[in-house]
Each structure stands twice: as structure tokens, then as C-alpha cells.
Give the backbone structure.
Amino acid sequence: MRLIDRLLINPNTCLRDALAAMSDGACNVLLFVDDAGRLRRTVTDGDLRRALLAGHDLDADLGVLPEKAPKIAELGSSPATVLALMNAHGIDQVPVVDENGLPIHLHLRRELDQPVLLSTPHLAEHERDFVEQAFRTNWIAPIGPNVDAFERELAAKVGMGHAAALSSGTAAIHLGLHLLGVEPSDRVFCSSLTFVATANPIRYLGAEPVFIDSEPETWNMSPAALSQALAAADAEGRLPKVVMPVGLYGQSPDMEPIIDLCRRYDVPILEDAAESLGASYRGRAAGTFGRLGIYSFNGNKIITTSGGGMLVGDDPDLIERARFLATQSREPAGHYEHRETGFNYRMSNILAGIGRGQLEVLDERVRQRRAVFQRYVEGLDGLAGLDWMPEPASFHSTRWLTAMTIASNRFGNDADGLINCLADARIEARRVWKPMHRQPLFDGAAYWPHHERESVSDRLFETGVCLPSGSNLDLAPQSRVIERIRESAGRAERVWSSATLSL
Ligand SMILES: *Cc1c(COP(=O)(O)O)cnc(C)c1O
């Protein structure tokens, strides 16, 4: 039963039952409704005590309470408006009623004071030690022992030969494309359903992105669309320089058919695993299937250095060259000698220290994110119209973000409606990425849908929502999210039965 329904009391409820309901403890207010379910007033424990002191006995029904118009908030009021109302009247709870006067939500001050965020950094124990060591030894520069160790430790963790620690995942993609020979007017095939950081570096190099749709099974690059796109490009004699599949929301793409296709046309793969560090596919780490792979340690990713990235590969020369390019392409010489354009893309020794501490808890973070997902599945069980991002057999997702699609006709609310409803309760949820082929930035770029008449990324964008999923998301705030999603489900789902009304 929804929390709000458990708070309802009616004129036939006696003081004893009201006190018992209050001490159930969900909150210290009850919602007194009439026989039609319309809100008449709120009842606090103080109101019940005063009724007893006035000489009413425990069996008296709540009709003895004086009429008192409740302070209510309108549907869709901003958290700031609701807090102002609470402050103006010295109260900690404000109900929301629908157009018929039926209570549909209760704002609680303690919730409005504590936003629930999508994905926040989650520090562990040892980051501080590594960072302090860097301070003690004055290794603050970009390069240093933490950088070397972080590279070694991450490469070992994912089972790749070598790694270069960089200032961001975006920098890693830029360098990776450059290393694979992308030049002006070259083509790069790239997942359409992704964050813009995947595609921007294609433009940095003056190259042309071609966007490939997702498949429904993984939400990641569709081998069917890729196959069509490669065949057409081959016929034209303009194969891409690189294919860039992205692992969304903690899940690897279906790499086997993608690798087969890229082998057939002899095109190297750069895997954008910014969101899928810690995931695996057929027993192997996401991000290790291409010639190169990249990870991100941005603040919202599964592990973070506040900002940072990593380029991984098995070819030691390629990774060594990445390090060279990332430090202004400085030639080994006593003076400053430069033969080619370089970048300032190295990770600092301080941030690498944070990364080393974070890497120690990666497996734990994956378990925690998966547990968050599992709690959503259980807590929202029975709600019509919600479908989770699938996780096919032989894939192991980190569930970096819990993502779902909403069939609005069955759920009774659409993606924006749900997100706004959560925002009213200071809960941050987000739409699924808007595909690159729909971004004004990439107007005119070629796009290959999954099937001639089916664009999967468009459907996922239109119906997809990501829920708060931090590995440090506690049970209570997550229950708040679940409760609020249940409240926002269509009115049809609500049953204002008399059974609900008489406790
Ligand atoms: C976060 C992200 C990036 C970029 O990483 P930064 O470290 O923020 O530069 C690239 N691709 C995807 C899919 C991402 O989610």
C-alpha cells in the first residue's frame, strides 16, 4: 500500500486507532478525510493529546476534533514554495490534494531538506592515504608514482596490457581517435544513443560522425544497423576509420557480432566504456574488446577521481604514444623540443591517488549498484507499464544507473511527467540520453536505424528514465523514490476503497 494511503483516517476512526497509526511511525501526521476521501484536516499527535485532555476517551471517534482547514500545496509546487509554506506556518508536513480534494501526496520537511541525487561520488577509505602520500612527497605534478601505479592497477583489473591515465574520458576518446589515424573528412561510426562526449572528439579532428542505432536487447550498438552501414560505406569506398560502440548505463554492447563485422571490413574499434567500467561480457571486462578502450572517472561515474579518464590497449607502443601526445608531445631532449602538435591531457598525481583508492572498491560498488537496481525491481513490482533495461545472459551489468522505459498508456504518466513529479519531492531523475542523430549539433549527419522502420534509440529516448542509483543511496531515500513513483502512477491504479479509509 502506498504510504499516503496508510496515513488516511476517517470520521469513524477512534482516537485509539489514530494514536496506534501515528505510532506506526511512518510520519507524525495523519490525513483526516471525509467519506468521499476528501481531505478535511491534518491530525498531529498534539491534536490527539489535546482531544484526550479535553476529556474525550480513547474510543471516541475523530468527529470530536475541531474543524481546521489544512494548509495544502498545489500539485506541481516547487520544493522552495512548499518549504516557504512550511516556514510561514511552522509546520513540517504539507499535503497535496488533487482537483477533487483527495490527498495524493504528503511533503515532509525532512525529505525536502535532503535531495536524492542521481549518482554522487562515494569515497572509500584509502583515497586519503594515497593523496596524503602525494602531498608528503611533493608529487603534485601531472605524472608521478600514483599515476604509474593507477595505470598498472587499472590495466591489471580489466585485463588489458597497458593504460594511460588522462585528464578526462573525453580526452581519452580524442587521443584514441587520433592514435587510430582519424583525420579531417574521415568517417567515424559511433553509437547514436550516448552522451555527447562520445561524439564531440570526432569533430575536434574534423572528421564526420555517422550514427548507429541501438538494439532492444542491450540498448547499445545494433549489429544489424552496423552491418548495413558498413556494407553501404564499403560499396561507396568510404569505410570508417574507427567504429566506436558505447556501453550505456553499466552494460557492454554485444561485442562479438560487432567485432566480427569490424574484422570483415578491417576497421579498428575504440570502445567507449566510460559508463561500463566494472561490467563484463562473456566473462571479459567491458572496455577491453577493441584496439583501444576508454574509461571515465568523472564525479558521477561508478568510481571517480573527481575528473579523469583512462585509455587502455594491448599495444604498448600505442599507449606509450598516448602518454607522449598527452604531455605536449615533448621530445626526449634536454631542452623543449617538439615535432608534432600535442595536448595537455595527463592526469595529476593527486587525482590518480584518489583513483587508486576508488579502484580498490570497484567490485563493491558494482554489488551496491546492482543491489539498488534489485530494490527498485522489488519495490516497483506490480506497477504496470515499467520495463527495466534488459541484461541478457552472459552479460554482467554494473547497473551504473537503473534505467527503465515507461509505457505511458499503462503507467498513467510519461517520462517527463514522472521526472517532474520526482523533482517536486527533490528527487533527481533523468531522461535517457537524447540520441546524437537528433541533436541540432549533428544536423545532417548520417544515421542507421536498427531496422528500416524501427529506430530503437528514438523509442528509448522518448520513454526512458534513469533513477537515482548511487552506490551510497541508503534504503530510506530509495524508499522515498519508490513511494513517489507509485504515487505518480496513473490515477486509475488508485483504489479509494472504504477498506483503505477505515484503518
Ligand atoms: C561520461 C562519459 C564520457 C566522458 O567522460 P568525461 O570523463 O566526463 O570526459 C564519454 N562517454 C560517455 C558515454 C560518458 O558517459
User: Anything to note?
Assistant: Residues 127-359 form a domain with the Aspartate Aminotransferase; domain 2 fold (CATH 3.40.640.10). The chain has a mean pLDDT of 92.
